[in-house]
Each structure stands twice: as structure tokens, then as C-alpha cells.
Amino acid sequence: MNERRQINFTIVPDEASSEPRTYANFCAISHTPFDFTLTFCEVLPPSEKDVQGEGTERILRAPVRARIVVPMQFVPNLIAALQEHLRVYTESTTKVGWTKENVH
Q1: How many alpha carbons lie under 13 Å from residue 20 in its C-beta half-sphere?
Q2: What is the pLDDT, as a whole number, of residue 98?
Q3: pTM above 0.90?
């Protein structure tokens, strides 16, 4: 009889990888019924030509730094991880003893 057994792994980034860090300060998100696409861009300050352009609607093209496609099932875990890291970051940067009630 061929029994199936479950094996669990903990996945961690391979820090020995030579892949460089990539800076992005903008993320465009799109989706299909099957996956989400996160397109990370670096938005640079507009040039004088961009500012002086005619019309009220302007388009600023941002260089794409990375395009990541993730399966739909991955998105809730990504959101939860981002929320948890934001919570820890916010708590670690809040001054001790400072609360909204203390501000006048």
C-alpha cells in the first residue's frame, strides 16, 4: 500500500544569494481570476518638461524595477505578513510614554 505522508518545511530566504536589492517607491497592482501581479516602480521627480506639459492630465512613466506574479492563494498571507510587520514597525518607532491623549 502506498501511503502519503505530509512533510512540513520552513522556507527562509537564501541570504548567500548574490541577487541585489532593488528600490521601488510605487506599486501598481492588477489581477486575474488566478493571480495578482505586483509591478514595482521607481518614481523619480518630474522633469521641467513634465511639469510644463500642456493639458491637465499628465502621465509620468516610472521605470519598472520588478514584476512579481503571485497565486491568489498567496495574497491573504502576504497581506497578513505586511500588517504584522507594519504593527511591529509602528510599535518600535513610537516614543515610550507618548500617546494620542498626551498631545494637546
Answers
A1: 5
A2: 53
A3: no
The secondary structure of the chain, three-state, reads CCCCCCCCCCCCCCCCCCCCCCCCCEEEEEECCCEEEEEEECCCCCCHHHHHCCCCCCCCCCCEEEEEEEEHHHHHHHHHHHHHHHHHHHHHHCCCCCCHHHCC
Would you kindly state where each structural domain of the chain is located, as residue ranges? 26-95
Q: What residues of the chain score a pLDDT lower than 50?
A: 104
Q: By the 8 A CB rule, do 80 and 88 touch? A: no
Euclidean distance between the first and the last CA atom of the chain, given in angstroms as a whole number: 73
